[in-house]
């Protein structure tokens, strides 16, 4: 596990279409962040939008 400001992080595998992964990698590069940071931000926003921010 890797520690972060939001607590420990864990690794897991997700299978996505190759084109989507490629697009995410390009977006991460364009934004100057790691792929993990981009996916974390997207997932956190999705959860916040889905449940009103109640985690």
Could you give a quick summary of the protein structure above?
With about 55 residues, the protein is mainly alpha-helical. The chain has helices at about 20-30, 35-50. Helix 1 crosses helix 2.
Task: Describe the protein in words.
The protein is mainly alpha-helical. It has two helices and no strands. The radius of gyration is 13 Å and the shape is globular.
Provide key terms for this protein.
mainly alpha, 2 helices, 55 residues
Average per-residue pLDDT, rounded, comes to 88
Strand residue content: under 5%
Q: How many strands in all? A: 0
Largest beta sheet, briefly? none
Distance between the termini: 21 Å
Uncertain segments:
none
**So how many helices?**
2
> Outline, from the CA principal axes?
globular
Assembly state (oligomeric): single chain
Assign a percent range to the helix content. Answer: 55-70%
The radius of gyration over CA amounts to: 13 Å
Q: Structural class from helices and strands?
A: mainly alpha
Q: Return the string of H and E elements.
A: HH
Topology:
Elements: H1 18-31, H2 35-51
